[in-house]
Write a structure and sequence with these properties.
The chain has 14 helices and 15 strands. With about 475 residues, it is of the alpha/beta class. It has 3 domains: about 10-60 and about 105-365, Aspartate Aminotransferase, domain 2; about 65-105, no CATH class; about 375-480, Aspartate Aminotransferase, domain 1 (Alpha-Beta Complex), CATH 3.90.1150.10. The strands form 4 sheets. A 7-stranded mixed β-sheet has the order 3-11-10-9-8-4-5. Helix 5 (about 110-125) packs parallel to helix 12 (about 345-390). It is globular. It starts with 8 loop residues before the first helix and ends with a helix.
């Protein structure tokens, strides 16, 4: 697909990038692209839209765009809080910005926003644009996961998309964000859970699984991981801190991440790094660098597909997500966008661009640090009330990122051989008693039984947290009586 951000090995070589000899060629990814994605063709109009902005003086008779004179919105002003002075500053879209925001735009994203986000990846992850990757904007990171894995999927009836065909194997770190399980399930792929321990992903177990893989069976194509959201199975004598997000857990250590990168090379799979809580970390311990950062020093560069989101720190409703990946993967995702929802909303992109340009990278960092501190305080209140109501009835680690507690119910009486299952208790009994949470089984691709529960601390005021946990205590006590 023609575009302004081609960073193939050839482009890297011409730029003199020191990574040029290690960037994987476009032809390498042929084995990973799904059959349905290979069948997809460009929208001939959308493929030419970027030319309207790239050639000064060009007179375009191309697209059937509605005339901006017919739009009823004639001006837009909003107030933006300065992260440093904390003052509210009025910001108005110019006439040109407003007209642009109300009009169609390229499927990949508006060029200046893409350029700003490429700069953000250098600022946050040390990755420069000539190092074998590209970027596209999406309607939240979940939209891009859908398109990348379905741009993996190969399901013609659903017109999906890029990496997985029916019958392919995907490694899924579990517990996992429940929203991605239906995405992988619908591709028709086989999901294999990868476990964790106190240091994050169980790289040794993964190594054993892959080294002993049956020779007559295709190996996994991808590993899906939320590197700041890995779960530690709790032990009474081994209560460790956790650093992760959704549903919960420890952050995978640097050593584990390097092991996974080595396994990806050895066993030829791609790493889907979903990191929506990267900017919502409030722990004191240094966090390990991302897979996206680490791969630039590996013998091969181009196995990491990274999903980012600003939805948690700017606006959930604006759905601000972006994907950083090898050029060919970005092309496949953009092609899916052309064939499905045409583009992420231009209005959202222009507002995001206005905000981000107004702040710059340093003020954005100041803002996200303040947001993280806000959630740290919410966590502290929630945990204090957890101790008040659930000591002796549940076990948990203290989260240092994200919005959730992941806790293990102690359902069996002393001496009981079974730990129980949180499913019926949370879905039925807790709901009947006026409290809504999520049973841990929904975060497991296998759907196996678990005593774990996920609870969010992001919204509720202290009095409602207090009452919710009091009600949950009643439910757990009743379940213990009945066991």
């Amino acid at each position: 697909m023609p575009n302004d951000f081609d960073v193939s090995r050839e482009a890297a070589q011409s730029s003199g990038s020191p990574l040029s000899s290690r960037v994987l060629l476009r032809s390498f990814y042929e084995q990973f692209i799904s059959e349905s994605s290979k069948r997809r063709i460009e929208d001939p109009i959308r493929a030419l839209l970027p030319l309207e902005d790239s050639r000064p003086g060009l007179i375009s008779l191309l697209a059937g765009k509605p005339n901006a004179d017919t739009f009823p919105i004639t001006s837009l002003q909003f107030t933006l809080r300065d992260p440093i002075s904390k003052e509210d500053v009025p910001v108005a879209l110019t006439e040109a910005e407003l007209a642009r925001s109300l009009q169609y735009s390229a499927s990949k994203g508006i060029p200046d926003l893409l350029e700003w986000l490429i700069g953000l990846q250098e600022h946050s992850h040390g990755r420069k644009r000539d190092e074998g990757w590209d970027l596209t904007f999406g309607t939240g990171s979940s939209d891009l996961i859908y398109k990348a894995s379905w741009a993996a999927a190969g399901m013609p009836a659903c017109a999906v998309n890029a990496l997985l065909n029916p019958g392919d194997v995907a490694l899924i770190e579990a517990p996992v964000y429940a929203g991605v399980i239906p995405v992988f399930h619908a591709t028709g792929c086989e999901m294999i859970e990868v476990g964790q321990d106190q240091d994050g992903i169980d790289a040794q177990g993964l190594r054993q699984t892959l080294d002993n893989w049956p020779g007559d069976r295709p190996k996994p194509k991808v590993l899906y991981t939320v590197p700041r959201s890995l779960t530690l199975e709790l032990k009474h004598d081994d209560m460790r801190r956790q650093y992760g997000a959704n549903p919960t857990g420890v952050t995978s250590t640097l050593e584990r991440r390097l092991e996974v990168l080595e396994l990806a090379r050895k066993h030829n799979f791609l790493i889907l790094e979903d990191d929506p809580y990267y900017y919502l970390y409030f722990g004191s311990a240094p966090r390990p660098p991302s897979y996206f950062t680490l791969e630039r020093d590996q013998p091969e560069v181009g196995r990491v597909i990274r999903f980012d989101s600003l939805s948690k720190v700017l606006s959930a409703g604006m759905r601000i997500g972006f994907l950083s990946a090898p050029q060919v993967i970005v092309d496949a995702v953009c092609l899916h966008t052309m064939n499905s929802n045409l583009q992420a909303p231009t209005f959202t992109q222009v507002l995001s661009m206005r905000l981000l340009e107004f702040w710059g990278y340093e003020k954005l960092r100041t803002h996200v640090d303040r947001v993280a501190e806000f959630y740290r305080a919410k966590r502290d209140v929630f945990e204090r009330l957890m101790h008040k109501h659930l000591d002796g009835l549940a076990e948990w680690n203290t989260p240092e990122a994200g919005m959730f507690f992941w806790f293990k119910l102690q359902l069996g009486n002393s001496g009981s051989e079974t730990e129980g299952d949180s499913e019926a208790i949370i879905r039925t009994k807790a709901l009947e008693n006026g409290v809504l949470a999520l049973p841990g089984t929904i975060f497991l691709p296998s759907g196996r039984k678990t005593t774990y529960v996920r609870a969010s601390f992001s919204l509720l005021p202290e009095d409602q947290v207090d009452e919710a946990l009091r009600r949950l205590r009643e439910v757990i006590l009743k379940a213990r009586e009945d066991s």
